[in-house]
Specification:
The structure holds two protein chains of two kinds.
Chain A: H1 13-27, E1 33-35, E2 43-47, H2 49-52, E3 60-67, H3 71-79, H4 84-92, E4 98-101, E5 110-117, E6 125-136, E7 142-148, E8 161-163, E9 165-178, E10 181-193, H5 200-206, H6 212-220, H7 224-241, H8 248-284, H9 289-301
Parallel strand pairs in A: 6-8
Antiparallel strand pairs in A: 1-2, 2-3, 3-10, 4-5, 5-6, 6-7, 7-9, 9-10
Chain B: E1 7-12, E2 18-27, H1 31-39, H2 44-48, E3 55-64, E4 67-74, E5 84-94, E6 98-105, E7 120-121, E8 123-133, E9 146-156
Parallel strand pairs in B: 5-7
Antiparallel strand pairs in B: 1-2, 2-9, 3-4, 4-5, 5-6, 6-8, 8-9
Classes of the chains: A alpha+beta, B mainly beta.
Chain lengths: 306, 160
Amino acid sequence: MSWSISEGIEVSEDQEKVFKELDDLFWKEEGWEDLESPYAGVEMWIKTRQQEKGERRIPLGRAESVADCTAEGACAWLFDFCSEERVASHREEGNHARLEIRAQEPRLNEKEFATVKRMPFPLSMREFVGKFILRKNEDGSFSAYSVPTDSVIDYGGIGRLVRGITKVIFTATNIESAGGVKQCKVQLLQYLDAGGFIPAWLVNQKIHFAFGVVKFLAVSFQCDEEIDRAALTSFSNTIKNEPQIYTEEEEEAIERGKVRLDKERATVYYCTKKLINFCSSLCSQGIFRNVYQQRELQGGQNGRQP
Amino acid sequence: MDDNLEKLKLVHLEGESLVTAIATSVIDSRIEECVAAEFKKDSRGRIAGLRKKRVVLQEIVSLNDHSQLYLVERNLGHPGFSNREWRSICVWKSDGRSVWSVYEDINELDKNFEVKSGNVVAFGRTTWFSNRFHSSAVSLKHEPLMCHELIFEERSLALQ
């Protein structure tokens, strides 16, 4: 059965409950603090107040970026959990399983997934099992909500696994096109409990790596060359066709620049000339003579003309 | 750098921190595109290459279509040297046949962007002169596609 995300779909009662639960989790209270982003073009924030209230090691993170695609495209990209591109990247990172689980009663806007991530030594691998639910928001943006499920997955004996919990709200909003390329603003809100015992300070320090998916999405749709070319063409048309009105200071700055160029051309010419004269005088004093004589001698021995 | 199309002359007096250089090049492009490519510093391609050029920070405040304020902070790449900041205004002007772009130091950016502690404010004055250069392929009906650029750059590292 085919379905287009842009048409929207009626959501069930249990799905509505998930939306409300996650909206409350992320937006009930303020307190977002800036987080240094390791990815160019991705802004990040972190909220750690809930850690003080006893929910140890679980920060809330937020990342925002701009992708060169429509909001529908961005959501579809995230929903397609086992696309060839993402599975290949998953394997390159040395991770294990990445699966989409078929439901007995499939829903068009819902998909269950499971993934096993490698962790740095001496931590065990982490397993995340959850489901994505898509929806079209009233303001025209699109969201993908992810909540954990309790399904038991048989990976075929890949070793000791610790189950982590992740809750996500991914929202994509169409924004103004740039250079004819459609763009959308994407926002990822993430609750990540890696399970087991990991100190809160370490989790807070490494949380930004969980936002790699935002950068991956931006890179997947990147159209830098087209956007730069369009901006360059537009600006060169401005230079060629649009008359400019200059202030007195601007006119003076241009005049000073012209004068300086002439003056410094002369300086460089004078210094170069002076250097040549200096070298010539050294030659005439015999300082370089031996070098020339040796070269001439070598040339003669090799049968070359001096 | 010297080849048939690109030439660089540089003067650096021993003991002084002032470098004066003139570089010339021939570029296979329309003159307006050359100027636009140089003037627009926030294109995605340029921003992606900033780290390679050891640019730590770049801020651009556009004043109008022909002038902008430009702040750039660079790591000189040698241990022991502080980062340098250049704060300048850039203005271009076209007379139809050639285009002048001039960079001069200003302190208007100091209000919004304070000098970081430990950084040194350097100064630089640059003049770009882009002039239409007749293409050798004169038999073509298109307008000449080559332009001749003369670049003057005087830049001090203000060693302290």
